[in-house]
Amino acid sequence: MCTMLYELRIYHMHPGRLPAIHARFSEHTLTLFKRHGIRTVDFWEDADGKETIYYVLEHEDRATRDRCFETFSADPDWQSVKTASEADGPIVSGIEVHFMNRVPYSPAN
């Protein structure tokens, strides 16, 4: 059985800012995630039109996750990207984070 830790992140956007989060992830954030060892499983956007995206990350364990996000958050390139992408105002109004473990009967096992 897989013992990886999965992290579901749900981002709620300020009105009209969904294109900005898509641009930031596709043009910058995913590359920075790779640089810091943050593994992305997949991304989704809300099917009912809410300005919300959902994505799942895979980590070896919670300590590794915390270290990776600490170095990512401190990266001057990330700080620059975040500041530039929010020149027209904040993008994300709220973030939900949920940590998950696969169950033994998951088809992914």
Describe the structure.
With 109 residues, this protein is an alpha+beta fold. It has a single domain (6-100), classed as Alpha-Beta Plaits (2-Layer Sandwich). Helix content is 38%, strand content 30%. The chain contains 3 helices and 4 strands; from the N terminus they run βαββααβ. It has helices spanning 18-35, 62-74, 76-85; strands spanning 5-13, 39-45, 52-59, 92-100. Strands 2-3-1-4 form a 4-stranded antiparallel β-sheet. β2 and β3 (52-59) form a beta hairpin. α1 runs antiparallel to α3. The longest helix is centred in the first third of the chain and has 18 residues, at 18-35. The protein is globular, with a radius of gyration of 15 Å. The mean pLDDT is 95.
What's the quick description here?
This protein has 3 helices and 4 strands; from the N terminus they run βαββααβ. It has 109 residues and is α+β, with helices and mostly antiparallel strands. The radius of gyration is 15 Å and the shape is globular.
Task: Categorize the overall geometry.
Answer: globular
The number of domains: 1
State the CATH architecture: 2-Layer Sandwich
Can you write the helix and strand succession as a string? EHEEHHE
CATH names the topology as Alpha-Beta Plaits
Oligomer: single chain
Mean pLDDT score: 95
Distance between the termini: 6 Å
Helix coverage percent of residues?
A: 25-40%
Rounded to the nearest angstrom, the radius of gyration is: 15 Å
Beta content comes to 25-35%
Number of discrete helical segments: 3
List keywords for this structure.
109 residues, alpha+beta, Alpha-Beta Plaits, 4-stranded antiparallel β-sheet, 3 helices, 30% strand, globular
